[in-house]
Amino acid sequence: MRKVSIVGIGQTKAGEHWQRSLRDLAVDAIKAALQDANLERVDALYVGNMLSGELTAQQHLGALIADWAGLGNIEALRVEAADASGAAAVRMGYLAVASGAQDVVLVCGVEKMTDADAETANAAWSSGMDAENEALQGLSMPAIAGLMMHRYTHEFGVQRQDFAPFAVNAHANGANNPYAMYQRPISAEAYAKAGMVADPVSMFDAAPLCDGAAAVVLCPSETASEFGSKPVRIRAATVATDRLAVHDRKDPLFLQAAYLSAQRAYQQAGVGPGHIDLFELHDAFTIMAALSLEACGFAERGKGTHLAQEGEIALQGRIPISTMGGLKARGNPLGASGVYQIVELVTQLRGEAGANQIGCHLGMAQSLGGSGATAITHILGV
């Protein structure tokens, strides 16, 4: 297997793009990534997307986006793994280059959510759950998060307000990210007063669904210097799965897929949790941030909120998370979120994160599909 590096990144601002189509957003991100890599052509395109068929009546995204981006007659496929679709596309691109099947690969994650009303969008999002045993029983993604958060507070003796630092940290970092949907800090007091979405999950516990696109260019590390001036190597790319329905899992408060995916990534990269300088986790809900920190070895069981309260997740903390706002403040365009995470890691590792820059040499991103049934972990380094 060949070593693989990222030599180009691009992204659109996450938000409500009423005047832009899904294909327009994807092309904008792709053009930015190609320009960053000083490239015009690639050998293959992999598109991460979850809901284009349901929300925009558009399937066959590989051929569509390759066509609109002017990439010609290349291999082009859509990749789907619910909310983790973008990260899944990055892994597919990594495998294509590492195996020698392709030399230069473009990965794009894109989602168009806001053309649909909130009820329709949330119902479509629920398709990443168990349709017969969860969704048809009236559960939604926020409802699942609410049940998990209720159980967590009971099991480990914490209060809802103990989750506030996750939201406060994300919004503080998002305030300095020009690509973030929300660029204004919030306070713990504002968190406490927020309206409920699915008790005890409030609007400040839940990341906003939105539109957006992000893209990366991959190539063999041995030729990376020919394209980008600051290549970043993919040290690990791993996937694991768990039971789809939360109630079927051995322990509903332990993200087994996240644990296995992280352990495989650590082994592949030859590192451990103590070597990771920053962690872009899947904070679609604050409860998932706490559970992810625990599953990936950064906190003991039931201590994820303690890590946040002690300031260890802040930019100058032991394990900074959501350094550009995370899903919570940057926004959560579902199938694109995993690629945004990779773009943000590369931005940090290149030293281009501006006011949010931390000293780092090794970063990890983990994207979750559904309520954690799929976990895809990437470790990047310079």
Q: What is the radius of gyration computed over CA atoms, rounded to a whole number of angstroms?
A: 19 Å
The computed structural class is alpha/beta
Shape: globular
Q: Per CATH, what is the topology of the largest domain? A: Peroxisomal Thiolase, Chain A, domain 1
Q: What is the first-to-last residue Cα distance?
A: 19 Å
Describe this structure as you would to a colleague.
The protein has 382 residues and is an alpha/beta fold. It folds into 2 domains: 4-117 and 210-232, Peroxisomal Thiolase, Chain A, domain 1 (3-Layer(aba) Sandwich); 138-178 and 234-381, Thiolase/Chalcone synthase (Peroxisomal Thiolase, Chain A, domain 1, 3-Layer(aba) Sandwich). Helices cover 35% and strands 18% of the residues. It has 13 helices and 11 strands. The protein has helices at residues 22-36, 52-56, 61-68, 85-99, 118-125, 141-156, 164-174, 188-193, 256-269, 286-295, 304-309, 326-330, 337-350; strands at 4-11, 44-48, 75-79, 105-111, 196-198, 201-202, 212-220, 232-241, 278-280, 362-369, 374-381. The protein has a 9-stranded mixed sheet, with helices on both faces. Strands 5-6 form a two-stranded antiparallel ribbon. The chain is globular and about 55 Å long. The protein starts with a strand and ends with a strand. The mean pLDDT is 97.
Secondary structure layout plus pairing:
Layout: E1 4-11, H1 22-36, E2 44-48, H2 52-56, H3 61-68, E3 75-79, H4 85-99, E4 105-111, H5 118-125, H6 141-156, H7 164-174, H8 188-193, E5 196-198, E6 201-202, E7 212-220, E8 232-241, H9 256-269, E9 278-280, H10 286-295, H11 304-309, H12 326-330, H13 337-350, E10 362-369, E11 374-381
Parallel strand pairs: 2-3, 2-4, 9-10
Antiparallel strand pairs: 1-7, 1-8, 4-7, 5-6, 8-11, 10-11
